[in-house]
Amino acid sequence: MEKTVRISIFFVLVVISCPAFAHFGMVIPSDNMVMQNDPRSVSLLISFSHPMEAVGMALSKPKVFGVRANGKNENLLGSIKPAEVMGHPAWRIEYPIRRPGVYMFHMEPQPYWEPAEDVFIVHYTKTVVTAFGDDEGWDEEIGLKTEIVPLSKPYGLYTGNVFQGVVKLDGKPVPFAEVEVEYDNRDGKARAPTDYMVTQTIKADQNGVFTYAAPRSGWWGFAALNEADFTLKSASGEEKGVELGAVLWVHFEPWQEK
Fold this sequence. Notes:
Layout: H1 2-17, E1 24-29, E2 33-34, E3 41-50, E4 55-57, E5 64-69, E6 72-75, E7 81-85, E8 88-96, E9 101-108, E10 112-114, E11 119-131, E12 146-150, E13 157-158, E14 162-169, E15 172-173, E16 178-183, E17 200-203, E18 209-213, E19 218-227, E20 232-233, E21 239-240, E22 242-253
Parallel strand pairs: 2-11, 11-22, 13-22
Antiparallel strand pairs: 1-3, 3-4, 3-8, 5-6, 5-9, 7-8, 9-11, 10-11, 12-14, 14-15, 14-18, 16-17, 16-19, 19-22, 20-21
């Protein structure tokens, strides 16, 4: 009995001492800078995961999936197809790029119940694709419930460049918002030296502005988290809190020499 108690205490301490890994909605395009000689379409994968650990989770069909381009919103929910990302149900779409512009793809998922945190998770996720030399409007707001609005162009970034964004909730900046940062490690080539470096956390300033310099080329996700002012009913009938995430995925390019 005493041995069992010691083992139980040990596992509780391990769980408490290990940092919790972050959830990220993911909208990842095959190309975020479409040039004249590139294919005239982009493939997008829509998923939900712990990206640095390459651990996927099931993503039900989103509540909303669309794109904002050239001042217009387009509903794409009817065009997404089932897919698999990191071994779990996900979604995909092939989107034709017919004219120059900045294309802001965005997703609002169904609420995801996370029993380990006793909370529902809703991550409003977006990424930005620029096409054929037109890059006007990259800092435009889509008008999501919560959103990261870029202050640096969210494309054309070299590894090590500083990226800045402002966290907004209901259209207003969120002072001192907490922003989690993770690398898209689906190929498994990156390794965090400790669990504390799987997810990096930064805080926005009093104006909701955060700053980050990516140490490695590839896709980086920024998730700004806030508690909703409403609850949702769980399967047991209890009212539970809701974590609202504003997620933005940005690609950093490697430096190249002639």
